[in-house]
């Protein structure tokens, strides 16, 4: 048996060596699923030998490689354009003989075409590196997004980056498991057949990065015989929703009831999906997604309470076990008794030796010994541990201990989302309970965007002074009812904003509004990029918070068979846009108008006499508002300067789950500056 164990250990080490060599060949210019797949496989193998930090690094590197590569080249291109615009003498750059083509490209307008050739890219990278071109104005600094071939150096810098990010943030990554079919199957096929995924905690209130490493938990969703896998069910529901909305244009009096039946059916299916995500997928591990408690006193009380339980019952726990217990207790009011009991068992059985550095393998299963700890731990010790902490949790949920925990204020959660998990509506899981939640492509882009706005970020929030606002409503001219509704809202709530409605937008207006305003509202089809002159990839210098209320405005749509998506919101982030609000899938105009107008009214300060929620809207579709009914400026929906909390509240303004679950934030947490007063 021992020889089999040694053989298994040796095989894993050999696989890791081969993967490291393969990644060295790919990491210079990664741009697709092959690199991503190698990183996931490497992370999976590293977890099997209990190397949590190295595994976390590989999971981090697996996300959005194409976005990072595009961001790097966008920085280079912007730098070259600024050199030409400012008429800086190109001869000041030290060219060697191999740089002749690069010089010619710089002097022409054909740099993008030039960079399509791999040899040209290599030559260009060398020239840029030699001349220390690391940043360009109005786009993300490539120093933070470019891939480095030295994994060891990057691994060390990852923890440094995490420490630099605001302490108020909780940073969690969700990564789909390794699937060898990624090498030949389409993104659509892979997306519907994910068997497991991983939750990686990168920054958390109880994770001391000076003493502890980020850690990863594998989630294997329960598959009940006879039930459709959740990925299939989600995609089927979204397909049905799309068909229902598209066919709405053909609705007649005879088919109206059938239309609403299908809408209702889609809604019920989405509710079931959300319930299954929380109860059948992550179950008790959902406590890992909860944001940081703002009260330092309450955090200290949780720490003291765990220590007291251990001391009074003579319970010895490892540092990782103690951290997991703190996380569990901080979410005690959001986890059911059966889930809590299961979590206590997992924490005791599976993490008692998580800090083992000997990499000993169990002779029975060939895995790290702590994975089989339930076969070796003392049953009496476990019973003492289990009873003590179940009683302690009961005291917390009944508010005999840690009073104030149930409704305590929490900081923002940053979800780093794998493309294959991105379509799921994570933000509406009950575990968040109205907490501020936003998404980002990956850690590198998050860090780069943070560094871009670092001087304007305080207490974990981008401080916004919305002195100027811009809007584009129905630029295509074919959404007349939506136009009347949203135009009447803007006239009432934001009368000083500038904008256009019901006109084929001039090609430069979309970009100009994004660059000139503090908040930009787009109401029309899609994300509005169809009105960009020269393509969305040329965006730069976006300072506004963008609200894009079109169908699928922040969705991921793979551009080809195996290519990874580079969506509009990623181009916004590359252009330094602090935050984008949009839709994950198709929506109907009336319901999304309700949500968008409520979000804007909650977040944007106004001198209007009544809260938008108290304004009569029986004739809103005609553009008529009833301002004579009861209510005041401080009505049922009070002003909320936190954009993410305002977004969470605005979801309640529609009765359709398919609508409320579709709207998400991508970017930095945003807060109206405390000193700002509307005029």
Which helices and strands occur, and which strands form pairs?
Elements: H1 2-26, H2 33-48, H3 52-62, H4 65-85, H5 100-107, H6 111-115, H7 118-130, H8 142-145, H9 151-164, E1 170-176, H10 187-191, E2 197-203, E3 215-219, H11 230-247, H12 256-282, H13 296-312, H14 319-330, H15 337-350, H16 379-397, E4 413-417, E5 437-440, H17 443-452, E6 457-458, E7 461-464, E8 469-473, H18 480-493, E9 498-501, H19 509-516, E10 519-523, E11 545-548, H20 568-574, E12 579-583, H21 589-603, H22 643-650, H23 657-660, E13 663-667, E14 670-672
Parallel strand pairs: 1-4, 4-5, 7-14, 8-9, 8-10, 10-11, 11-12
Antiparallel strand pairs: 1-2, 2-3, 6-7, 12-13
Helix pairs in contact: 1-2, 2-3, 11-12, 13-14, 14-15, 15-16, 18-21, 21-22
Task: List the keywords.
43% helix; five-stranded mixed β-sheet; 679 residues
Number of distinct helices: 23
Question: Fraction of residues in helices?
Answer: 40-55%
The order of strands across the largest sheet is: 9-8-10-11-12-13
Instruction: Summarize the main sheet.
Output: 6 strands, mixed
Tell me the span between the first and last alpha carbons. 78 Å
Number of strands: 14
- Taking all residues together, what is the mean pLDDT? 83
Give the DSSP E fraction (strand runs of 2 or more residues). 5-15%
């Amino acid at each position: 048996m021992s020889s089999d164990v040694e053989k298994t250990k040796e095989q894993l080490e050999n696989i890791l060596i081969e993967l490291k060599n393969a990644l060295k060949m790919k990491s210079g210019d990664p741009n697709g699923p092959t690199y991503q797949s190698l990183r996931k496989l490497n992370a999976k193998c590293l977890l099997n030998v209990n190397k949590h930090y190295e595994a976390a690094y590989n999971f981090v590197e697996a996300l959005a490689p194409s976005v990072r590569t595009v961001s790097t080249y966008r920085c280079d291109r912007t730098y070259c354009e600024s050199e030409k615009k400012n008429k800086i003498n190109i001869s000041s750059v030290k060219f060697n003989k191999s740089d002749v083509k690069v010089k010619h490209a710089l002097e022409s307008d054909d740099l993008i075409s030039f960079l399509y050739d791999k040899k040209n890219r290599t030559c260009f990278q060398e020239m840029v590196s030699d001349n220390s071109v690391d940043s360009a104005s109005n786009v993300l600094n490539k120093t933070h997004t470019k891939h480095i071939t030295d994994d060891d150096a990057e691994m060390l810098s990852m923890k440094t980056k995490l420490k630099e990010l605001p302490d108020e943030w909780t940073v969690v990554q969700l990564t789909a498991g390794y699937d060898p079919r990624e090498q030949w199957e389409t993104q659509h096929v892979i997306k519907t057949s994910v068997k497991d995924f991983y939750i990686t905690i990168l920054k958390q209130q109880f994770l001391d990065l000076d003493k502890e490493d980020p850690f990863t938990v594998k989630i294997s969703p329960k598959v009940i015989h006879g039930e459709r896998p959740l990925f299939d069910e989600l995609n089927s529901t979204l397909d049905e929703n799309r068909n229902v909305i598209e066919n709405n244009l053909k609705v007649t009096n005879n088919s109206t009831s059938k239309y609403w039946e299908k809408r209702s059916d889609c809604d019920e299916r989405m509710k079931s999906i959300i319930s299954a995500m929380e109860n059948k997928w992550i179950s008790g591990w959902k406590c890992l997604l909860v944001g940081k408690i703002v009260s330092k006193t309450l955090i200290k009380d949780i720490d003291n309470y765990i220590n007291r339980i251990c001391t009074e019952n003579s319970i010895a726990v490892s540092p990782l076990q103690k951290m997991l217990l703190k996380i569990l207790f901080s979410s005690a009011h959001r986890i059911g008794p059966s889930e809590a009991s299961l979590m206590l068992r997992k924490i005791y059985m599976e993490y008692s030796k998580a800090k083992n550095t000997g990499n000993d393998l169990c002779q029975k299963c060939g895995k790290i010994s702590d994975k089989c700890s339930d076969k070796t731990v003392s049953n009496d010790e476990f019973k003492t541990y289990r009873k003590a902490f179940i009683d302690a949790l009961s005291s917390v949920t009944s508010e005999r201990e840690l009073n104030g925990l149930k409704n305590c204020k929490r900081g923002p959660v940053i979800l780093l989302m794998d493309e294959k998990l991105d379509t799921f509506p994570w933000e509406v899981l009950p575990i968040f309970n109205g907490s501020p939640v936003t998404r980002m492509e990956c850690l590198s882009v998050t860090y780069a965007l943070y560094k871009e706005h670092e001087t304007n970020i305080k207490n974990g929030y981008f401080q916004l002074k919305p002195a100027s606002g811009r809007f584009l409503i129905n630029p295509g001219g074919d959404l007349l009812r939506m136009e009347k509704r949203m135009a009447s809202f803007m006239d009432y709530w934001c009368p000083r904003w500038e904008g256009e409605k019901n006109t084929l937008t001039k090609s430069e207006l979309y970009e100009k509004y994004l660059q000139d305003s503090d908040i930009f509202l787009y109401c029309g089809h899609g994300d509005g990029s169809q009105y960009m002159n020269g393509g969305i990839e040329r965006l730069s210098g976006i300072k506004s918070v963008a609200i894009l209320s079109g169908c699928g405005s922040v969705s991921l749509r793979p551009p080809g068979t195996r290519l990874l998506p580079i969506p509009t919101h990623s181009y916004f982030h590359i252009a330094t846009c602090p935050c984008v609000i949009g839709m994950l899938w198709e929506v109907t105009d009336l319901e999304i108008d309700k949500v968008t107008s409520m979000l804007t009214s909650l977040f944007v300060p106004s001198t209007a006499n009544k809260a938008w929620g108290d304004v009569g809207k029986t004739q809103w579709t005609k553009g008529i508002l009833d301002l004579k009914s009861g209510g005041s400026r401080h009505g049922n929906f009070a002003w909320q300067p936190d954009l993410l909390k305002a977004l969470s509240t605005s979801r309640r303004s529609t009765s359709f789950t398919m609508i409320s679950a579709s709207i998400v934030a991508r970017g930095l947490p945003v807060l109206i500056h405390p000193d700002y007063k509307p005029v």
